[in-house]
């Protein structure tokens, strides 16, 4: 089993490297917090997109094309003209569904937000014996605690804390108490002034649950 690592690429972009390389919400170009350029991203096997807002869809097509990666998104995104015409491998699925390929298990979860096409979603990704939840853009909702009941205990949860478009620190703290992940990493904050938040206040607020504040470009090793 490979050693699995999570690398925060700023905003909502997360790179997970293990037996396969997975990137979620690859907003790199024009992301003021991106620690690298698209060209510096390692070869990707799966590109996961939570919704079609520019700060999530980002460089998804370019990376999927470059690496012949599989793009996984909600059904309506898989039918978008720019996706169909790009001739990339695309898997359109929907909330509650699970997709398996090459030892990777990807489940699509609910998210409370908006989108141009389809619905916004989150993902639970299983690889190398670890289970990682990326909430996408969402407010808190009272049934978020169903996610570990449906898909299993979470090793890591990536949760937005910036407010204005998503959960803020108060709501994300409620989410942590419901999700009970072994580790939480805050995302979707400090990219622009409108979503300013202090990761250390979130960390204090979640105790005794463990929060790891990753700066853009920082990596956390989850072990094998
Ligand atoms: Ni959004
Ligand atoms: Mn967003």
Please supply descriptive tags for the structure shown above.
224 residues, alpha/beta, Metallo-beta-lactamase, Chain A, 7-stranded mixed beta sheet, 6-stranded mixed beta sheet, 21% helix, binds nickel (II) ion, binds manganese (II) ion
In short:
With about 220 residues, the protein is α/β, with parallel strands linked by helices.
Describe this structure in words.
With 224 residues, this protein is of the alpha/beta class. It has a single domain (4-212), classed as Metallo-beta-lactamase, Chain A. It is 21% helix and 27% strand. The chain has 7 helices and 13 strands. It has helices at residues 54-57, 60-67, 75-78, 81-86, 146-151, 169-179, 199-206, and strands at residues 5-8, 14-17, 21-24, 46-48, 70-74, 89-93, 98-101, 104-110, 121-127, 130-134, 156-160, 183-187, 219-221. A hairpin with a 5-residue loop joins strand 1 and strand 2. Helix 6 (169-179) crosses helix 7. The protein is globular and about 45 Å long. It starts with a strand and ends with a strand. The model has no long low-confidence stretch (mean pLDDT 97). The site of nickel (II) ion has 6 residues, from loops.
